[in-house]
Amino acid sequence: MHRLMVLYLVDGYLSYDRPCHVMAETIIVRECRHGQVRVQFGNIIRVDGDIMVIPANNRLAGREGLDERMQLAAGDELRARCTEIAVERRKEGKQPCGVGEAVSTSGYNLPAENLVHVVAPDCRRPNQDNFRRELLVNSYNAMFDEISKIEPRKTVVTPPLGMDVFAYPHREGARMTMEIILDWMDGEEDPGVDMVLIVTDEVNFLNNMKTVYRESEDQFPGVDRTRDFRKGKIQ
């Protein structure tokens, strides 16, 4: 049986303690103009949503990290569909999915009706690392654009892009993740999304997210509802 670890707050930071069967623990809740954004610790593969985001590579190959785990969980049909997309785009002289691009597929065996595959900057490569901030913004914008084409899209489940094997610096990435997604959910245009769940099991990233949020909470769009959630005042 697969076991998850519950995340406890120790001196204001997140750490593992003992095994637990909790699928996702809510760490941060923020209310924006068009809906909520929640940061959760857990296994994204087990979190339900209308749309689930996969952190893809530029070949849609699913060969490492979270991308591989999610593709394996989705099953052989997703692998076959990604290969079809890659072949179709190669015929047009394009990469299967370049950095800052996104494509969508069915959800197959994952708990979402549709998947959005997004390629973030790979900071292991100097040419991408040097422009990582701009490329990360492009990746999220591609994700938002692809989501806007899909129905239903009330609940979006996404990992923080670039923070897995692509080695984006976690402190900078935590701040940018919050700023970009909160701006989207609090902007003038309604994206048609009621809930964004940012789900990860990367403890270092979550510790950085917690620190960034504590330091800059009053500067982010929206209103903090974390305490209300913990007290059971909101679901």
Give the spatial strand order of the biggest sheet.
6-7-5-8-9-4-3-10
What portion of the residues fall into strands of 2 or more residues?
A: 25-35%
Give the quaternary arrangement of the chains.
single chain
Q: Supply the CATH superfamily name.
A: Leucine Aminopeptidase, subunit E, domain 1
Which CATH class is shown?
Answer: Alpha Beta
Poorly predicted ranges (pLDDT <50, ≥5 residues)?
Answer: 1-22
- Give the CATH topology: Leucine Aminopeptidase, subunit E, domain 1
Rg = 17 Å
Largest sheet: 8 strands, mixed
Helix-strand pattern: EEEEEHHEEHHEHEHEH
Question: How is the secondary structure organized here?
Answer:
Layout: E1 4-10, E2 13-20, E3 24-31, E4 36-42, E5 49-55, H1 65-74, H2 76-91, E6 102-106, E7 112-118, H3 126-129, H4 132-147, E8 155-158, H5 170-186, E9 195-200, H6 203-216, E10 223-224, H7 226-230
Parallel strand pairs: 4-9, 5-7, 5-8, 8-9
Antiparallel strand pairs: 1-2, 3-4, 3-10, 6-7
Helix pairs in contact: 4-5, 5-6
Write structural notes for this entry.
The protein is α/β, with parallel strands linked by helices and 235 residues long. It has a single domain, classed as Leucine Aminopeptidase, subunit E, domain 1. It contains 7 helices and 10 strands. It has an 8-stranded mixed beta sheet with strand order 6-7-5-8-9-4-3-10. It has a two-stranded antiparallel sheet with strand order 1-2. α5 packs across α6. The longest helix has 17 residues. It is globular.
